[in-house]
């Protein structure tokens, strides 16, 4: 039975979002910084590998169940890039304007029919550092890369990610609507179900 877990992230936005959602099923979430856990090196070549690395690292150091997420943008015309390198696409520490500009520049000659892309989010919950059957939830959000930045909501690549079903960029959506549709929102809903099923089995 899990009643508290460590979040393998030091990102305040994520900490707040996960804490609120998991509270609905009586799980308390604390960030890994509570135990002075530094970010793990993301050496995997897939999102799921990186999420496992982060969760295992936090579980090992704290001795608690750990939740990690890994997310990014996968662009068809870039052969799946930037993928696991999404946050470092324009170099470590580059700001949002810089990396979205780099993406738009690299996609300049790509025709409208070939601008497909998706956001990906993988969530991993490890009950302990050697857990052989972690709970894993993964969701994608299909869209297209725009030709210019649009909208001011959200963060990261939202201004260059066009959502055909809403006929606007992700950064033009109200946050509640984004959470309903997005890779992260849907992966979280899946994870909540997996946790509840797991709690029912172990109760
Ligand atoms: P991480 O999950 O914090 O490692 O994020 C990886 C990268 O993907 C970051 O650079 C984010 O900007 C980008 N990213 C992940 N999810 C989203 C999203 O919902 N909107 C925009 N960018 C995102």
Question: How are the SSEs placed, and which strands pair?
Answer:
Blueprint: E1 4-7, H1 12-23, E2 28-31, H2 47-62, E3 66-75, H3 96-106, E4 116-126, E5 135-145, E6 161-163, E7 168-169, H4 175-181, H5 183-202
Parallel strand pairs: 1-2, 1-3
Antiparallel strand pairs: 3-4, 4-5, 5-6, 6-7
Helix pairs in contact: 4-5
Helix- and strand-based class?
A: alpha/beta
**Sequence of strands across the biggest β-sheet:** 2-1-3-4-5-6-7
- Tally the structural domains: 1
CATH class: Alpha Beta
Indicate the CATH topology: Maf protein
How would you characterize the largest beta sheet?
7 strands, mixed
Bound molecules: inosinic acid
Mean pLDDT: 94
> In total, how many beta strands?
7
Instruction: Provide the β-strand percentage band.
Output: 15-25%
Task: List the main descriptive attributes of the protein structure presented here.
203 residues, Maf protein, 5 helices, globular, binds inosinic acid
Structure report:
The protein has 203 residues and is α/β, with parallel strands linked by helices. The protein has a single domain (4-202), classed as Alpha-Beta Complex (Maf protein). It is 33% helix and 22% strand. The protein contains 5 helices and 7 strands. Strands 2-1-3-4-5-6-7 form a 7-stranded mixed sheet. A hairpin with an 8-residue loop joins strand 4 and strand 5 (135-145). It is globular and about 55 Å long. The N and C termini lie close together (7 Å). 37% of the residues are buried. The structure holds inosinic acid. Inosinic acid binds next to strand 3. Inosinic acid (IMP) binds at residues 69-73, 86-87, 119, 154-158, 182, 184.
